[in-house]
Every structure is written in C-alpha cells, then in structure tokens.
Amino acid sequence: MSDSHSIAIRQSVQTSVERPGDGLDRSLWARTAAPAPALPVLRGSHRAEVVVVGAGYTGLATALALIERGVQVAIVDAREPGFGASGRNGGQVIPVFKHEPQAIMARFGEEAGRDMIDMVMRSADDVFALIDKYGIACDAERTGWIQGARNAAGGQVLHRRCLAWRKVGADAQLLDADEIAQLSGTTHFRSGWLLGNAGSVNPLKYARGLASAAVGRGASLFVGSPVVRLESVDGAWRVATPEGELHARRVVLATNGYSTRLWPGLRESIVPLYSMQIATDPLPAALGASILPRRQTMTDDRHLVHYFRRDAAGRFVIGARGPFRPDPSAHDARRLIAMARRLYPQLDEVAFPFRWAGRVAMTPDFMPHLHRLAPGLTTALGFNGRGVAMTAAMGRVLAQACLDDGDRRLPYPVSALHPIPLHRLHRAGVQMMMSYYRLRDRLA
Ligand SMILES: Cc1cc2nc3c(=O)[nH]c(=O)nc-3n(C[C@H](O)[C@H](O)[C@H](O)COP(=O)(O)OP(=O)(O)OC[C@H]3O[C@@H](n4cnc5c(N)ncnc54)[C@H](O)[C@@H]3O)c2cc1C
Fold first, then answer.
1. 192 CA distance to ligand 1 centroid (A)?
2. Quick one: pLDDT at residue 304?
3. I need a surface site. Which of 63, 104, 114, 279 has the fewest CB within 10 A?
4. For range 285-306, the mean pLDDT
C-alpha cells in the first residue's frame, strides 16, 4: 500500500457507521460491545493480492485464512465489520447442518458428503480456535446446544436426528422429558437432544475481534465503502467504491444476505429473510438460575423456529422470524415477548428493552453454496441461519478456492449459481409460507 493510503487513513477514520433505521439503536449486541475499531474509508487507488468484499464472519475468516498463507488482503465493507448478520445474530455456535448426514451423502455422494459432514462437525472447533488464537474477548462459552420437541411426533424426528448425527461421530445425546426440563428450566418440551460441542458467543464482539485480528496481521480494512462496480480488466479485477478503487487478481464476495446487484444473479440466488430478537436486562440471580441453568443455547422444533439463550451478563435473549425490516417495532416484539413468557412464566413482569433484526440468507435447498463466479472471483453464501459456526470453516475453504483456480478438490462442493425464478416476488412468497408454517406450528 502506498503513502497516499496512510494519509487517507489518518484523514478519514470512522469508529462506527450507525445510521437511523439500521435497527442497531436497540440492539443488545451493539449496546454492549466495545466500540468498533477506527478504520478508514477507501479513497484513491490501491492494489492487493486478494480483495474480500464484506466484513462479516465469512469475509473476515477468509481474510485471516489468506493472511495465514502469507497473502496480502484488502477487505472492504459497505458499512463496518459485523454490520450484517454477523453483528446481529443469536450467537449460537451449532456445528450441524439442518439436513441429516444420510441426506447429505445421498445427495452429494459418499466421499463429498463425508467431507461436508466432517467440515460442519469441526466448524465449532474452528470458531473456538480462532477465538483462542487471536485472543478475541467475545464471551465465548462451550456449553452445548439443545433442540426441543413440543410433542411426540416432533420427539420422533429429533430422536432420529440425534442418532443420525451421533452415528457419524457427533457428540449428541438424547434428552427425555425430565432431562430437558432440568436443562432448559421449562416444561414446554417433551423431549429433545443435546449437541455437546456447540457453544455461544457475543456475535458483534466476535465479528469486531476477527476484524481487529485481520487488521493487526496486516490486512487493510475499509469501512463505509460500498462496492458499486466489479469489473475484470486485463486479467485483474477492479473493485470500485464511490471514492476509491482496489485492484487485485482475485476477489472473494462475502456479502451473503446483504448482497446487492454487484454480480448478476447472486442476490437472486438467496432469499433474505428477517429474523428478530428481543432481550431482557440482566436477570436477578435467582430468576436467572431458573432459566437454562447450565447455560446451553436452545432452539425449538417449529417450522418458524424460536431460538433462545442467556448472555454473559445473565440477560434472556430470544429470537424468531420477523417482519421485513431491520428495525422491528414494539408491536412486532409482542408475539416474541408472549412466547418468552409461555416458555418461562417467571418472566411475566420482566421488561424486554432490547429489540433488533437482521437478514438471514436462505437457499432453496437449505444448504450454503460455494460458487466460482468467474476466473479469480469466488463466493460462499446462504448459511440458512447456521452461519456462526459454518463461516469459520467456510473461510478456510474460500481461501483455498480463491487461490487454487479450481485445480484441487475442496472439502465443500463448488456449485453453479442458480438465481431463484420469480425472485422479485419473494416477499409475497415468504409471507404466504410464513402464514402456512405458523398455522402448522399452531396445529402441531
Ligand atoms: C437475527 C439473526 C439471528 C441469527 N442467529 C444465528 C445463530 O444463532 N446461529 C447461527 O449459526 N447463525 C445465525 N444467524 C446467521 C448468521 O448470522 C449468518 O449466517 C452469518 O453471520 C453470515 O455471515 P456473513 O459474513 O456471510 O454475512 P454478513 O454478516 O451478513 O456480512 C455481509 C457483509 O457484506 C457487506 N456488504 C454487502 N454488500 C456490500 C457491497 N456491495 N460492498 C461492500 N460490502 C458489502 C455488508 O455490509 C455486511 O457487513 C442469524 C442471523 C440473523 C440475522
């Protein structure tokens, strides 16, 4: 990087790029994480070996994996590290796919399927290894994840799921009614399963920690710099933002649910759903001890799932599918508050001062996708609400994919980009699906 670059850094440091309507003013994570590191806006023209677009977990894990291989990386984000789903999520580190292992092997074949299963099962190790290696203070805990069934039919599904993952080596344990009541602190569930090597993080602290690690090891990270144009010029990529440009032979797009029209069909290959969360203030000790006393994180077995946990300060945090906006209203939060109190009647008098939302990138097959979009241009997206763990593993694969030009077999299959037909109608479609699933969940 040139001298003019360091001048630009000094002239334009930003510590946070929060704006009204972002939905971050009532976010628990935004209110409790240390301020974002001071970072520059991209100005002028610069070169890097690899440019990573998007400073969420995917982009940052990829950048760190590249740096570990001695590659010079520039990262550019429209807003700031963790502005997208990575700073807004539930922080549940869950190292399994939504599909069962047999379904993965049936679809992708024994060898590729086994690689994918190994990759996802090791993904929580990858997260906690990054946290250890880079000394990231993000309230990381490895207490396990529980999925609970509300009735006998749901119990059978989870029973099968638990045995299927255990068969391929996962640390999975069946829970009967008494066991799940003891661990969860609610009698809402008839049975369930516990994935022992899962865990939790404060998501925004983790994202900012990854960003600091990347910058500390030599990456250039530009904030407030939306990439508005991507073009291939004489075998190299020109990555243009409103005030500057980066040139590199290789580019990784890590924009997931916040993808714009930067590359034809990319945004249309996922459906960005909003998920919203609410949180209490720290609960009094006795009340707190009655909810998830061993601090596992939890998900129910609804089609429109509820996910919940306690944070490091003892707040209760619960989330579910939300309306199509980043700043949910008090009215939007009512259904979720009612659910929290159904699960835990002891929260009846407790207020929920925090509420926020973010985009979850869903794919039609509920699997993440890795694409080579053009020579030197790679992406992975569509983590389907399970990206906290998987992005740490995918970052390594993306780093490998972006450097080797397709000549080596990867632990995750590269697929062709498939824009979803009639994508512009996705909101109406999603709303219909949500009404249908809500009805099925009520009838179950
Ligand atoms: C409310 C919520 C709860 C969730 N809970 C969980 C959970 O508990 N467990 C779990 O495993 N997963 C969860 N997820 C999913 C998880 O957060 C994501 O899978 C993960 O964060 C994806 O990371 P990412 O880096 O791919 O994308 P993101 O974090 O969304 O990052 C994309 C980045 O790209 C940037 N960008 C976009 N376009 C441009 C451009 N043109 N130029 C420059 N920058 C650009 C954005 O500003 C953004 O910072 C949840 C998601 C949400 C929203």
1. 28
2. 84
3. 114
4. 95
**Å from CA of 395 to ligand 1 middle:** 13
pLDDT of amino acid 6: 31
Cα 88 to ligand 1 centre (Å): 8
Cα–Cα distance for residue pair 191/179, rounded to 1 Å: 8
- pLDDT tens column, 190-207: 999 999 999 999 999 999
Predicted confidence band of residue 18 (pLDDT cuts 50, 70, 90): low
Ligand 1 pocket test: which of 127, 255, 261 has the largest number of ligand atoms within 8 Å of its C-beta?
Answer: 255
The closest-lying atom of ligand 1 relative to the alpha carbon of residue 87 is 29
| Contact status, residue 162 vs residue 151, Cβ threshold 8 Å | no
Residue of 360, 363, 384 to test ligand 1 pocket, by largest number of atoms within 8 Å of CB:
360
To the nearest 10 degrees (0 to 180), the angle between helices 123-133 and 203-216 is: 60
Ligand 1 residue neighbourhood (C-beta within 6 Å): 53-59, 76-79, 83-86, 88-92, 94, 226-227, 254-260, 262, 275, 277, 307, 319, 357-360, 383, 385-389, 391
Q: Which of 435, 393, 407 is nearest to 62 (CA)?
A: 393
Tokens of 307: 């996910």
Q: Which amino acid type is present at position 313?
A: A
CA distance to 9, 146, 162, 171, 377, per residue, from 166 (Å): 50, 14, 6, 6, 37
* CA within 13 Å, CB half, 104: 25
Is the pLDDT confidence value at 401 over 60? yes
